[in-house]
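Continuing the series of single-chain predictions for the mutant panel. This is the parent chain; the variants come on the following pages.
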Amino acid sequence: MIVLGLIPLYIRKHRANSSQNGIAAYPAVLYIWSGQDISVSNAADFVAVIDFNESSSTYGQILKTVPLSSNASYKIKQSGNEPHHSAISSDGTYYISGGLLSFLSQQKQIFIWRVPQNVQDGPQFLYALDVPYGCPDELLAIGGAKFLLSMMCNNNGDSPGNVLLIDAATATVTSYLNNASTFVNFNPHGFARLNDSSLFLADYIRPVTLFGNDSSKILFRNTVRYFSADGSLERTFQFNFSNESRETSGVGQGIGFMDVKSIPNDSQKRAYSCGTNDNILYLIGPEIAEAQPVFDISEVNNYVKRISAGLISVSSDGTRLLMTFQMRFIILFNITQPNYPVILDVFDFCYDETLDSVPILNSDTNETSTFREYCANNNNITGSHVLLHPNGENRFIVMNYFLKAGLAQFAGTRSVHVFKLNEQLTNFTYEPRFNPNFQFNYTSQQQYLTFHSLKAYPHHVQYLQL
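Parent structure:
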């Protein structure tokens, strides 16, 4: 047996929390879009409402859940949608969420909810949209009740996908891109919208290859594209894939770009994207001739290449980049000099000593364990994927669930975690008080909802300030 990455290169030290100036922990709630195991009676995909007010006696607990309800007449299926990404409209009126695999059963894929005046009451389901294409992924509010949505595949799980413009107020859907049907190997996942409304789109994977029986046949894409504000394709960045075993994770073929995020207010309109298979952080821009490899992130794991499902968050001032990596690490970069990013801090869900006293429950066995033990038995994968850092907050949220479908069996610990940044944005610490995941040593009178008791698969999160 080969055990990978038991000794991380970056060793964290205990740090005291510093006072927060400029950023703060605001009273808020979280809406978490989650699936539910089909073993649960009347299982339903649901939105969990989480108390995110540090001064509250129920901080970090699930206040309520709002489930989907099947309606065959309207092609709505309450479970098995594989809840994926979500967003809140710019006007704060609508919450929108997508089902990554709803298209496989010819069901509606996009769910529209009303955000109530008291956000703690949870969203009210309004309707579902029957959109063209399949594999709905990233959602972005772009003003009023309008959203952009990347569709990673067509109705056959193949190329080309598209980017759609959704108006939740009028329930209308149109293509945002020009001539998307002509694009080759077009499977957009993450994207970035710049101030001038131009777009970077990251091509990730040919989804249909995930549903075979041979992982060597999984096909990742090798392109990131740049579109002008009118939806016309301007640039395609082509990345060279190497078959050298030391240069990739060894899973499938191709690099795979899950996410791309731009540097706010950058005069050169540059953006970062990280390769799923080669673990390289690239810098791109419409005026850059070729993509620039600026950091081999596998450095944090002694240069061992592992498949990664990392999502990126760039601070509003363009000086910091947070991301998940290799489905276990969280990394904070200083990107003041975009060509020369510097790692400021690294957290490892598998072997960080701050988690040694944090018990978890195994979703399959219900046995009490630790992250260290879990990782030793699960190939050093906790499922770390979605990362949300709300603007102005000193806290950010990480979701430890990626996907459990076909050859992508990366359920992880199926848990949600919070971290706190220090005042200078140079390090962060784990927040043990926040725990909607597990409950230990309770009586029936003291029991409350947890993601574990709900047998949940929490995938995406939205932040709503009170």
